[in-house]
């Protein structure tokens, strides 16, 4: 799990408890800034719950890429892809593609991370496993 996922899980837990309501705008903006997100994006991620963005690791696995290798080499890219995945509007389609085993064939047409994923897929040193 990434640090972002851990922080977002913490934040989501606080949201369920109602204590996020106690956070003022400055606190929310500071947390969002620390994560490299806008406050609106942070709130959308929290609203999706702790499952937000889990599809990214599944997608990387479908592409035979090692999430830990990507995270180690490019932590900012991984964070950005995680944030994009966590706020994705096509998440239901993505899950269906992943569940059906067709994600690798169709992700370029539906995934907002398609360009980054294609770049990673093209680079064998990102931890790609045998194809």
Architecture overview:
Helices cover 69% and strands 0% of the residues. The model has no long low-confidence stretch (mean pLDDT 80). It has 9 helices and no strands.
Query: How would you describe the shape?
Result: globular
SSE order, one letter for each helix or strand: HHHHHHHHH
Q: Please report the distance between the alpha carbons of the first and last residues.
A: 25 Å
Radius of gyration from the alpha-carbon trace, in angstroms = 15 Å
Counting DSSP H or I runs of 4 or more residues, the number of helices is 9
Largest sheet: none
Helix content: 55-70%
What characteristics describe this protein?
131 residues, mainly alpha, globular
List the helices and strands and how they pair.
Elements: H1 3-17, H2 25-35, H3 39-48, H4 55-62, H5 67-73, H6 75-86, H7 91-100, H8 103-110, H9 114-122
Helix pairs in contact: 1-3, 4-7, 5-6, 7-8
């Amino acid at each position: 799990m990434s640090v972002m996922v851990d922080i977002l899980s913490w934040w989501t837990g606080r949201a369920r408890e109602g204590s996020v309501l106690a956070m003022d705008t400055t606190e929310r903006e500071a947390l969002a800034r620390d994560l490299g997100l806008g406050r609106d994006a942070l709130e959308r991620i929290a609203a999706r719950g702790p499952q937000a963005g889990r599809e990214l690791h599944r997608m990387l696995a479908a592409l035979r890429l090692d999430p830990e290798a990507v995270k180690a080499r490019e932590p900012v890219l991984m964070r950005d892809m995680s944030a994009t995945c966590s706020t994705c509007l096509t998440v239901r389609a993505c899950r269906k593609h992943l569940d059906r085993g067709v994600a690798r064939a169709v992700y370029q047409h539906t995934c907002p991370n398609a360009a980054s994923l294609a770049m990673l897929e093209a680079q064998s040193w990102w931890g790609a496993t045998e194809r």
